Automatic annotation (TrEMBL):
Coiled coil: none annotated. One of its GO terms (molecular function) is phosphorelay sensor kinase activity. The keyword Cytoplasm does not apply. It is found in: Cell membrane. This is Histidine kinase. Residues 317-369 form the HAMP domain. It holds the Pfam family HAMP. The chain crosses the membrane at residues 294-315.
Amino acid sequence: MNWNSIRTKLIAFMILATIIPTTAALIISYVTTTNALKERAVTENQNLLYQGRMNLESDLEELNRNSLTVYSDPEFFRSLYYSHGNISTGGRQSATMQSMYHAITGTRQVYLYVDGQRESTLYAQDIARKASDIRLYREIPDLQGRKLFIQPPHALHTYGFQLAYPYEENTKVLTLYRVIERVPSSERLGLVAIDLDMTFLSRISSQLFQPGNEQLYIASEDGIVMYSGDEARIGRPLGEDWYKTIMASGQQQGYFEHNDNIYVYNRVQTSVSNWTMIKEIPSSYILSSADKAAFINILLLAVSFLLIIAAMIWISVRITAPIRELVGFMSQVKSGRMTVDIESDRKDEIGILYRRFSSMMDTINNLILQEYKLKLANRTNQLRALQAQVNPHFMNNALQTIGTLALEHDMKRIYSLISALARMMRYSMYNTDKPVTLRTELNHIKDYIELQKERFENGFDFRYDVEESTLELTIPKMLIQPLVENFFKHGMNPVARDNYILVQSRRLSPSLVQITVEDNGNGMPEEQFEALQAQLRQLEELDLEQLQVSSEDKEDHSGIGLINIMTRLKLYSRGKSGFNLENNQPRGFRVVLTIHVEGETDEGIDRR
């Protein structure tokens, strides 16, 4: 082994750099993770118990309000002074007990005993059963002066009544007892008992712990288990040390660790109870994921040593060689060779680097080519206007002289038309390869329209609907005027009185503008329209580098050089703009340009 080689030094360094920090990281990570897991478990379970407490308190308060129906129903309260023999009394009591029976989910039965009449009523299985001249049922516990009491879970009984469908054996319920008094005095009139099956507690409690791994207790103020994941504990007293610790704390909620278990508790305080929800979580259950992660990390550390050695050898061969090759390509580009053949079939970062560098070179070459073609297209579009001018400056000066002479003879209309024509010539002659603002292009179109109105004696209507926010956006020069000119060459009907041409612009997005040129002229014959659409679709499928701009003075059958316009638009926006033709119904023609706005304002045009 050559200790002076980069490969050997790299392998040795990576092994040392892996062993020391990884081992330390494993120890620190395990300690930190175990503490974090405990803290997170406590926080999550405190939140969980809080939510469970709120739900349970809500249900208990609802149960309390349901039992208060004996006071809120005046007819029922008055019925306590009369015997069952009174039909109205019996019906009123049955109706109220039925309402109480259906008000709380999980209610098994409702029992009423009236002291003065020595009568009892049991509403169960949707039937009210009555008995007279009997004593209070013997299994009802001594309330010891309490007016409201919830009896811990006990075996379900029928208060001495016979039911059509006997209950299942060992069915447990918890019972709310409320003493009925002659308010405002404390004289007792009777007692109402509401039996609830264990779903009253289990539907909330079962969502608060993981059976088999965790345990949940709901203990009454007397330390009796009202609910537990272990059914054998239900109804029995809690005497464990951890419960005594909770009772001694006097806090509303809290947690502590005892005998490798974490206990999280929260008190349920309502007008009918002072219970405590306690969740027991084994520390081993909380830390099981940390122990498993530590084992996996140790295993991965051993495997990583082997992988590091193999990876260093592979990296030195796979990375350094292609990097040197790429540096050579860069040197060729630096020397001026812009057509370097850069290819790589690698799928990793080196391959991406190759492809990005190759893409960058293609982009640079395409930008150079597109810029050249765009300038060529702009100049080609101006060719017709310049071919007829033997001396453009002479013609412009001559027009200014004629205009001045017309003004001296008070021929203002002639002066206005000559000035419009002069502005059009200046617009056509200067800076043909630079983009202009939409405002500048529209001013040129207005000058053109003014001349055409004189020519056709105002035989058409020019409509102008342009959003203000689009006027300063830049577009290729002479892009819209040929579309307007097409109306007068091919579309206008001289005998019609409703001729119009519309130029409209709308901003579709911050970088997208739609320009529409529409008329109600003769339109285009369907056969020619289909042929033109096919030609434009072929042009749309070409890549930017395949576009060719013709410098010959040829017009297509439509007379507006649509191919030239679409080519210039595609080059200007690098293929991001759209071009759409439509034959209006019943007559007319529409061209819709969707332009991706780029370029700079042409500041060389004097529009004054």
